[in-house]
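Dock 2-OXO-4-methylpentanoic acid; give full complex structure.
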Amino acid sequence: MPLQICRTSAPKPHIPDAELGFGHVFTDHMLLMDYTPETGWHQARIEPYGPFSLEPATIVLHYGQSIFDGLKAFRTPSDDVVLFRPQRHLKRLNTSAARLCIPPLDETLTLGALQELVRLDTDWVPRTPSCSLYIRPTLIATDPTLGVHPSRTYRFFVIMSPVGAYYPEGFKPVKILVEDRYVRAVSGGLGAAKTPANYAASLLAAEEARAQGFTQVLWLDGIAHRYIEEVGSMNIFFVIDDELVTPPLDGSILDGVTRDSVITLAHSWGIRVAERRIGIDDILAAHGAGKLTEVFGTGTAAVISPVCELFYKGHAIIINDRKVGPWTQRIYDALTAIQWGISPDPFGWIVSVKQS
Ligand code: COI
């Protein structure tokens, strides 16, 4: 499929890296592609970043038939620009698409178009190592009709944002409220798909937690309200008795790319990793026995987010004296060194945007 490119005639001024937050600033260009059952995905094009119009009746605005993903590009010390595990992100986008009755993208063609987009806006990739270019591929249902059924037509678009730390705290331990009333998702529902409904479902709990001084919530399962699922919009890991423990991919949590990267790194270091169900009571017991030494969240946006406190039913569980633990630090250092091109990439995670 040919990729049409229409360059902006009005490039925007850049924001200094030190002033970047998360997702407020967008680059000069975006990628677009449309789908109809007759032509499949067609008209791949790069255009200046800007608004596009939708009829008020458009399905996505009413029934949320939409998915997205999030990946990052980094600038290496040799001034190459690399994507972190883009194939895995595009594969997950297609897994989310299948759950939402959205037609799949050609992952190879999409990766090529994505590389072209990043090449075009390569100046927007920050030069400060802790900053990156966050890339947001999104797929929306575009039929203008109010019947509840899958759309016939779709739009795919990719926008990009130079970003600093996701949490204002940066790589600092955060306080988390264990949520025992609201739930994010249930097995068999949408929890494993990266779809806006999951994020909408999280807002009220997050706002209430924030009002009480917590950065995010720890989600428990939707049935027993006992088993640990995710932390905010991230996967969660515990270090218990020198074992790295994380909930299994059983249908209600996201198959995080950072989660998989952490597990792969830990295995390569000979660390014991268990993907198993773990109850909040197991966490309390492990903490009581002095065996819970570290807790951290993992996600593309924040990478690794250390947790210093879990607050559950009126009791504060303090982790590692509120300090970043050695496993958390080692994992963060190793992962970001690969992403920033500072250390070798033995796993084949890095993909250059240079023309091959
Ligand atoms: C991620 O860390 O990848 C996320 O899902 C957070 C994003 C929704 C901002």
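Observed: The two ends are 18 Å apart (CA to CA).
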